[in-house]
Design goal:
By secondary structure, this protein is mostly helical. The protein has a two-stranded antiparallel sheet.
Length: 168
């Protein structure tokens, strides 16, 4: 039995963002317990040359929502990157989840060889949809979800592997 593009993308995106939402809830609880302002926690970085927590969440949600849109052959919905609180980040995740859920299997399935081009700060990237999903979107989304987890964990939040992976 083969797996469809929709099955390889949408459920993976939804689970990752749902787990990110949970990790942020635990991080927020930790910040509140330690009397750390949201603005401070959201600007926390693993090391100085890495992006802060807020940007990790923004990029993770962008990867998922933009990935779903491009796989469906539509222009991605633009989100402003203006979150300054945990509540605003949670709202961003919910908006991304709702957007991803709006795509139907018939919009994405069969798109394996559809061309997708991205303009990045390092130049233009060109893929076929399957390679875009498997070699760009999923690894990037998980990198930024993992980095958000790591920032909160190293800040002292009571997080474990099961919080990141979620329940089966």
């Amino acid at each position: 039995m083969s797996i469809s593009m929709y099955q390889a993308a949408v459920p993976v995106f939804l689970r990752a963002l749902g787990n990110l939402r949970h990790v942020l809830e635990l991080g927020q609880a930790h910040a509140k317990e330690k009397s750390v302002e949201d603005s401070v926690m959201l600007q926390t970085r693993l090391i100085p040359d890495m992006l802060p927590l807020v940007k990790q969440v923004q990029i993770a949600t962008d990867m998922a929502k933009n990935g779903a849109a491009r796989l469906a052959g539509v222009d991605p919905l633009k989100f402003d990157d203006n979150e300054t609180t945990f509540a605003e980040l949670q709202d961003r995740i919910e908006r991304a989840i709702d957007y991803i859920k709006s795509f139907k299997p018939e919009q994405i399935d069969g798109s394996e060889t559809r061309a997708v081009s991205l303009k990045t700060r390092n130049g233009e990237l060109n893929f076929e949809d399957q390679a875009y999903l498997l070699h760009f979107v999923i690894p990037n989304m998980f990198f930024h979800c993992t980095t958000a987890y790591d920032i909160l964990r190293t800040s002292g939040a009571n997080l474990g592997k099961s919080d990141f992976i979620g329940k089966p």
